[in-house]
Records
---
Amino acid sequence: MTDTTTTADPTRATAGAAPAAHGRMPDNLLRVADLDPTALALMLELSAAMKAEPLGWRAGLAGGAIGCIFEKPSTRTRVSLAVAAHRLGMTAVSLTREDMQLGHGETWADTARVLSSYLDAITVRTFEHRTVEQLAEVAAVPVINALSNDHHPCQSLADLLTLTEHFGALPGLTAAFIGDARGNTCNSFLEACAATGMHLVVASPASYDPDPELLASARRTVATTGGSVTTTTEPADAVRDAQVVYAEVWVPMDKPHEAHERAERFARHRVDHELLAHARPDTVVLHCLPAMRGQEITSDVLDGPNSLVWQQAANRLPTAQAVLHTLITERRG
Ligand code: CP
């Protein structure tokens, strides 16, 4: 992990004590870049400790509650957050726009103010990233981005925990991200790789390449962490030296109307045996799921010996637990 000079020992957080983050933790988790490299390393250490002892952190937050506002479908994020809350001794309240007065004219700001008096954290999956930011500006409790159009930080934490488990350490690892590089998964993975000193090659069709501002920011980060970020339109070039190949869905949830066009544009960006023939034999494969089998990834790769996808999905739970525990205990002071 990058820069672990802190004395933090996550195993000492048993019985509800906060991890020794010494004020480095953010008030909210809206994007990966909210965590500096040290905070990110601490979050991953705590995730691993919570995975080893899932019920060891119940005392501090027992009796608390989180809200889960989901404006888009979700399996992994919704369930992992709810179970994580339960494992921490809290309850999770599932909320939708239609269920709440939010769907009947009440503002996000008024909703956030009121929910803050009942809840210890608000998790939200929505469309515009600005909505998550506005919620965080008003809420008196931590806001956790459970996916916006631009960022998916909870996913990236599970990605990094999975790679740490497999490789032992993240700095210097070489990863290839194949597919839509303008989406939330790539944006967050880009920030995660930069913060941990990984070498990332992003392969996407022209005009689906990374956002220039985000790319510039990641390049400033790797100047301090020792990683690198490069882009290409050629998937075979991207995977050639990659220890990790990350497959991404072609059609994001907010763009179903682009399905036909994207199927044509992304046809060469499928992670299958043909593409992996250009990679190292021991390269591992990630996918955030849900997978569209036969589109961005084939079943033989998804279910094959190089796939870490199911471990990656399982790691959504301990990482959700670490995020909830850290942000809530830090905010309480
Ligand atoms: N990867 C992910 O966020 O899955 P869900 O959409 O099922 O939550």
---
Amino acid sequence: MALYSEKVMDHFINPRNVGVIENADGVGEVGNAKCGDIMKMYLKIEDDTIKDVKFETFGCASAIASSSMATELIKGQPVEKAMELTNKAVAEALDGLPDYKMHCSVLAEEAIHSALEDYNKRRKSE
Ligand code: FES
């Protein structure tokens, strides 16, 4: 069996939603201290719905594929739904990740949660 699924390879070579959103409504940045990889998520939110999402990932192939897939999974979803996104769901949508690469999908879950928390904080202080 190949180390990575076709979906992982596809999202690594051709990642969706790469970039920055100017004036984003929520921004989250997380890192993994062990491997040193960093992921940043930008959210544009209107009427409690994720209108747009972009990411920048400085990391391994699995981290890039996970961020790409995670953005696809939450785009167009209500904030509440996006909050429930788990790294497992991301890995499953990628047709699996090798066990020792599961932590890469955790980074995607954390980055999205942290961007959503930022959004909630900003809303409260408005
Ligand atoms: Fe660090 Fe994949 S090895 S996120």
---
Amino acid sequence: MPPFDVPEGDPFGPHNLPYGVFSRVGSSERTVGVRLGDHVLDAGAAARALGSPYADLLAQPTLNPLLAAGRTAWSDVRRALTAWVTVPAHRETLAPHLHPLSEVTLHLPFDVADYVDFYASENHARNVGQIFRPDAADSLTPNWKHLPIGYHGRSGTVVVSGTEVVRPSGQRKPPADAAPTFGPSLRLDIEAEVGFVVGTPSPMGTPVPLSAFRDHVFGLCLLNDWSARDIQAWEYVPLGPFLGKSFATSVSAWITPLDALEDARVAPPTRTHPLLPYLDDSSEDPGGYDLRISVAINGHVVSEPPFSTMYWTAAQQLAHMTVNGASLRTGDLYGSGTVSGPAETERGSLLELTWNGRDALALPDAKRTFLEDGDEVTLTAWAPGPGGTRVGLGEVTGRITPGT
Ligand code: CA
């Protein structure tokens, strides 16, 4: 089958065209690629072959120049790419620049600038509240419905899908113990999230309003916020997550442009509390995205979290993150927070799926409370696309190796 004939119904058809960075087997040269079915198009080489003005933007070792080029350029480049892969006259010219995915290595697609992680699922926040504060009158903290809670994470340990994750060591102190001990985490967990990638920067002192979300955010990807629950539980009061999360954060190798997700936009859940004007999205376009996520451990699906249930939208998170005048940089990444739906089969962490280890999960050949060495966790997702199609998101996978 000629490479352009992507099977009908393929979630990576010409309606999708996510961006990544690849090198060919045997070469160390990285360049921007666009996924088409089970192939990757060398975008810079294709642009050169067709005499496109975007060749310099695409023949790059990271997506950062494209991210920095801004929304008009994003739309123009996507329009050009769509034409290249759908107009039959280009087939012969482009064929040498299409490579099977099995013959390339995928890399972290952009230089991550700052990394922020939020906590935007009401179901997740309520579950965690019930697990850790069972005696509290309300499972949500008093601020939760008024602002998207977040923290600044560690951008230097954001890794591409496929990177092995070494079990972290640190201080752990179960409540009944008198003193902490040091050693490998015994409660290693996942958090199924969606990451948003900032393209256009903003200057210090200038908040980014809800209405400017699409001018700044280029696209999204799946994200696994690996979490060592025992380290986290002992260290987090009063300043929040630190070493329990900073050892690794995995992102997919493919960044899906927001322009590919127009048919997936949905209204977020009904707001139960009035919002301050900078967060009030009642007169904005729908800010939610209908992304259907699957979480698999060793190939066995354990959960299907629905992103459409997230209370806070990515636009609200961006507005909140900058309302104090904090600047944005090209390559900033922010995570949505663990995605958990209302059903028990829709929870995005083992903490919730096993209710803090109380109820072991049954895998085909084993039971799990938290992750064991050798376990491989894979997040996949799709979204509704144009004309009944599906838009696939690039998977994010990682295998746990023993700590020291
Ligand atoms: Ca998280």
